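Data deposition worksheet. Section B asks for the primary sequence of the deposited chain exactly as it was used as input, without tags or linkers unless they were present during the calculation. Section C holds the resulting structure in token form. Section D is free text for depositor observations; keep each observation to a single sentence. Incomplete worksheets are returned to the depositor.
Section A, Depositor: J.P.
Section B:
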Amino acid sequence: MAPTLAVIPEQPKLHRRQPPSPAAKKEEEVVLRKRNEELERELRKSVEREEKMRLELQRTWQRLRVAEEAEERLCSQLGELEAEAVDEDRAYRARILSLMDQLSAAQKLIHTSSSISLPSTPQ
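Section C:
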């Protein structure tokens, strides 16, 4: 066997960054501070919006409870009125039937009295 030669591929050279200069560090620090301040402002606004929405939700929830209670009272009153109307309807029907019976009896009485002939008196 013949001797073999191994070839190792060349590794790419890693580019090492030069440490930033003090002026670049200062500039980056200023940029980061501005960005941090901007993010803090946005966070405060977001917290304020969240608190506003929470208060609005509480007010809406309270209005909903008031509306539900009013609905329950109205339903109860409606039920009472319906029951009262049914009672009145029954009373009116009974009164009508009674009046119809009286009218029928009166008509029979009139009919029987008119069929009885009264003796006529000569004039």
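Section D:
The two ends are 175 Å apart (CA to CA).
Helices lie at 22-115.
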